[in-house]
Please model this.
Amino acid sequence: MPADNADIADIADKGGAFIRDIRVRSALSAGTPSGVDTHENGMNYIISFLVVGFVFSTVMGFMYILLWAERKQSAVMQDRIGANRATFFGLPTMAGLWHNIADGIKLITKEDFIPPLGNKFLHTISPMIALFFALISFAVVPFGGIYNLWGYNVSFQILSLNVGLLYVFAVMSMGIYGFVLAGWASANNYALLGGMRASGQMISYEITMGATIIGLLMIYGTLDLQQINVAQGQLWGGWLPLWGVILQPLGFILFFTATIAETKRIPFDIPEGESEIVGYFMEYSGMKFAMFWQTDFIETILAAALSTTLFFGGWQVPYLMSDGFHFPWGTVWTLPVIAVMLLQVGSFLTKVFIFCFLLMLIRWTLPRFRWDQLMRLGWTIMLPLSILNILVTGLVLVLWRS
Amino acid sequence: MAIKKVVETGWWERIYVPEIVRGVALTAGHFFRNMALHTAHIFGLAKNERGAATYQYPEERRPLSPRLRTLHRLTRREDGSPRCVACMMCETVCPARCIYIVAGEHPNPQIEKYPVRFDIDLGLCVMCGYCVEACPEDAIRMDTGVVDTSAYTREAMIYDMKKLLQLSPTPTRGINSYARPEDLKDEKEALAGH
Model:
């Protein structure tokens, strides 16, 4: 029937328009003026691949450096020297950087033991789950703004998602599966207890983490990390950058503590407790064991990147606009786009580096919390404080806007 | 029986943050002080300030105490022959029975005896220093500064007279291994006058 066909065509057309609308909107949010031209689309794919490669190699590079810093920074903090003996065919020791490669060779060639009573499939896949979900959280973290280079828009955010922050939390929660399954599939009661501790701790602190950022969301009114970053470029009174930490100091402390708990490193390393209360990776050896360590390091970088993005202006440099510096006293330094890009991406990476340093410092300074202290801190101190933070922020916002 | 009282934490400690900041400030202070020293060492500055408590052992030795008993050596006369007169005092006093001496007749009737063999089994030696104490001729000393005596076989741990005579005292130590530096100066002067 023609009428029905017309209806269907109409609906299909509307649907197509809707889909096109979404595509155009997503392309717009990624900075592309038109998502129609095939040549530009091809170029956009190449740019996307380059950005993905940049983000992945940056994260892995940071992980490599953290692995090295774990040894050297702790050593320097404790008046020691640290690992400095490994060489490669007599090359200079490079302050112990070869030790990471030696570790890799050792871990890859080590026996990969699977407990005979354990679940072989889950035992194999759980470190991959943990590492995978830690890595893909970086998809929505903006490593830089959107820059127009030679007619192409380059966005330093892999996935421009309007629920970016929810995505990060969802993915981080999924990561728990890796740890719990690792504990369960090992057919070892101690490993299972470690996995249970991991799930208990991470669920407790995720609630605080989620409640903490609500104050931030109320201020910026968006879940898109790129837009949160752009909003942090505003100046208050013409000179003070409106970074999240200035608007939400309590929120920052709570969020930072909760992210440290999420990384499962020392003040909160009850799930692992590698020195005495062995954790969920007890029955793991070789590279699978190392994948859990990599997960820890990548979560450390994620904690640093999220703290930077949400509370320390992300890629923002104070007074740096898209065309150069605009100082509050009126001086203007005009800069080319590429210089602005390098400055802003460099600013983000520097902030992440400083946060990684700080996290490492905390990890090598504090002793471990006991389980009851951990739970008391999470449920009776941090959760009420984060709810108080929401209330106070809401009250201030209502008074400010009225 | 002493019972250690549990120190109650006040509200200041229990809000954690200021105490954490204090602890982190302490470790960060160590970190930046040591990093500054390591950086200065690269440029050849502040060499006498140590950036770490570590001694990088095979290349860098700890300074030894002047009183430390280290590997034995046999002292020589002015003509180069061993000062030992094979009196067997050290062999007798040795609690580990690690010294083995075979005496021979010395051509000089004033000396009477000399060691044909003088072996120390360092695998047995307990470094007690009684041999040095017992020696009437100051023929054996433990002032070489060698602390890492090791070998792949038990036989190689037995040091014979030739080896023991070739050892020399550490340059920082002097004639008397039990002497302080200021005593050493006097002793050297006395010997020079002798």
User: Anything to note?
Assistant: The longest strand of chain B covers residues 113-121. The radius of gyration of chain B is 26 Å. Confidence is low (pLDDT under 50) at residues 173-180 of chain B. Chain B is about 30% helix and 10% strand.
